[in-house]
Amino acid sequence: MKRILCALLLLFTIFTLPGCEGVYHGIEPKPPTTPQNPGNTSNPTDDPADPKNQEFTVQILFDEEIFTGTAGIEVQWANETSVQRATFGADHVARIKGLDGDYVVTLHGLPEKYVYDANAYVATNGRRELVIEIFEHIKTKGTGKDPYSAISITRPGGYTTEIKKAGGTIYYQFSPSRAGTYYVDTIADINANEINPSIDVYNGHIAYKQYSHTVDSGASEADYTRNARYVIEVDAKNVGGVYTFGVTATQKEGLYPITVTFLLRYAGSYKNEDYYRETIPQYANAAELAARGVFGDDDIEKGTLTYPERKISDKVYVLDGSIFAINPADGYYHLKDENGQPNGPILYAKIRRRHRFFADYTPPGSSVGFEVSFTGFGEHSVICVEDPGNAALQYLGDNNDENYRPFIFEYADYITNEEGVYPVTEDLKIFLQKFSVSQRYFSDGNGWAETTAEDEIGYRLYSSEADQWLFACCYYS
User: What is the pLDDT of residue 26?
Assistant: First the structure.
């Protein structure tokens, strides 16, 4: 249909948007060979089933209500053979009969303070009643030269920007006032087919912004022009945040400056169910955690770094939970001594440093490789990077309904030692077990840890179902 639209529009000439003053003229037709009057019925037959006896209608929607300022506005239906127009009646509906087939529908005489997507509307015999949505054409302030000086926009509307040179980008940040799904659609004319816009999306907040990805499709398109649609989903818990994006475009002949208009529109309600999963309490006894204080370098036992596994054959090891138990005196897991009592070295979990089975990760848009941006479970100094480990913290319950992020972040706040470790408590053991199961680290020889450990650590490593919580653990002997 997008290609058909382009072909249908070849009858017309586009009047482009001048500068950034918010003036929108839409699509103007070439005069037809034979003048046609508004409401021309094209000699319909007496048969009520004949398509030419069926009424085609248009209403205008503005700010989610039927638009009443229709005086002086005409609706145009056009295809390869005819161009016909109708005015709006007292009920703010434009009506016409005598049409049969597919027609590109546009508005003419729309006041300059409004804008709409002239690429978007096609009437057919099976879709005769259209509602065309128009938007306020909003003037903005600021240069938008970089993400941190982005032009602030707070409400749906039409926005026009000027790209002065190849590679130029103008940045915006949207601060929604209500939850919902929003579309940012560029509306470059697919008939002219000269401008190809795109949208660079950034993650972060007002003080930290990081490039995520580029959107270069999703809306109306032709051979060269491919309009972009950036979808913003705002949960009630995110109202007040900012969504930063950059608008850029290329011109077929390399001619600049060029103007790009985009629409920001509310597309419906939205609720992120993940935000409403059960949140695991941050700690069973927060006062006890606070009383223990931070674990710095001086609090970590000295000795040789040792992992909780035993050799079962040449280059084959298995995690062994039977050699550890809780010591009631401090509430930590310890290695059992020769009498089978948990009086040996403390067992630690790597929380703020990379453990053996987190793959290296470079955040999108980064030109510098981190050893790993999310080095353990609780490392959150790299803001707004959703790597696999971080995102997984929301999906650890039996029914993927538990959110462990606050839990592990609480532990992480008490870790200042270079190794990034914390003694394993019963709560930590439960967390580690759920994490390993959710990530399929061990799965009958096909889990992530089982298939990658040999390259990472030089030998195969397996685990029983009950002992896989040890994957992130170590002690100093």
Answer: 41
166: tokens are 């190849």
For 203, residues 6+ apart whose C-beta sits below 8 A from its C-beta are 209, 210, 211, 212, 384, 385, 386
**Does the structure show a pLDDT above 50 at 49?**
yes
Report pLDDT digits (tens) over 194-215. 999 999 999 877 777 889 899 9
Helix (H) or strand (E) holding 287: helix 286-292
Using alpha carbons only, give the angle 364, 366, 367 rounded to the nearest 5 degrees: 140
Q: What is the DSSP string of 101-168?
A: S-EEEEEES--TTEE--TTS-EEBTTB-EEEEEEEEB----S---SGGGPEEE-S-EEEEEEE-STT-
| pLDDT confidence bin for 122, thresholds 50/70/90 | very high
Report angle CA 96, 102, 105 to the nearest 5 degrees. Answer: 60
- Taking CA atoms, 312 is separated from 317, 426, 458, in Å, by 5, 27, 15
Digit-coded pLDDT (tens) for 419-453? 889 999 998 998 888 888 877 778 766 777 777 67
CB 174 within 8 A of CB 154: yes
Question: For residue 100, what are the contacts with CB-CB under 8 A and spacing of at least 6?
Answer: 42, 51, 52, 125
